[in-house]
Amino acid sequence: MYGEKSPYTHLISEDNLKAQDPEELTELLKGLYSYKHKVFYYGSMPLTKVMRVIEKHHKVPEVLKTYPDPVKFVELETNENKVYFVDYDMVQVNIIMMSKDEKLNMSLLPEATLFNEYFGGGLSSIVFQEIRESRALAYAVFAAFNIPAKRERSHFAYGFVGTQADKLQMAIHALLDLMNDMPKAGKQFNLAKESIMKKIESERITKTNIYSTYIRNLDRGVNYDTRKDVYEAMKTMSLDELDKFFMEHIAGKNYTFLVLGDRDAVDMNVLKELGTIREIKLEEIFGH
Questions:
Q1: What is d(CA 11, CA 278) in angstroms, rounded to the nearest whole number?
Q2: What is the pLDDT of residues 54-80, one digit of tens each?
Q3: Is residue 104 domain-shared with residue 188, that is, in the same domain?
Q4: Could you say which DSSP state residue 286 is in?
Q5: What is the mean pLDDT of the segment spanning 129-145?
Q6: CA triplet 16, 22, 28: central angle to 5 degrees?
Q7: Mean per-residue pLDDT for 189-211?
Q8: pTM for this structure?
Q9: Where residue 111 sits, what CATH number does that domain have?
Q10: How many CA atoms lie within 13 A of 215 on its CB side?
Q11: What share of residues in the chain are helix, strand, coil (percent, to 5)?
């Protein structure tokens, strides 16, 4: 997703870690409350009493520091098909295909939620039924269109298949075919909508989840419970509307393929058919 500079490689080197003065680390911990922060309380105590307790025990400077600028990781474009292969001693082969879409667009939430339920998730989903149940090509399979956590990040379309090495070609092409041509199954579509609505009806956001949900929504530029949008949309959304979303955001895209498997068992010619191959080491992914 990010290339060489990623959250997984943004680490302190072993030499710097060994040279670190423990007192500097403890001072960092002591100084945490000197930065701007929020206090969340969940309970039955009146707010005025809560504030008195906080003021008494939560000692902070009069002027709080602003946060350091976060490190920014740039999402790579998927404007061509390419394959990253990691040699790993394992029996099966795991393949993830991903394609970058537009920046966070919360108006896509209802369609994305329905797509994930109908097409890519669960035992009754299209990809599971077509690839695992009907053709027995995979141990595990799913597809999804993600909703990024922050406004500056992008949506990504994903597909995953875990299969036997000798079924690699058939499994990949089966998933690719589905990601370019979504089958229309009216019964499964209606069941997917019902499942989403029932989940929302029975779900309760309580205790600390109230705060985490609120902050998560703010990070996405929303100040209300987005489940309402999804619930109302499920009442009227048609299969043709979902297909329109599919054609605009899933079908016909270029993909980055991430392949994990035993080099001796994987047919590299199959991977060459997908795009330019680059073999990478685990150290390049994790930074150590």
A1: 24
A2: 999 999 999 999 999 999 999 999 999
A3: yes
A4: H
A5: 92
A6: 95
A7: 95
A8: 0.91
A9: 3.30.830.10
A10: 9
A11: 45, 15, 40
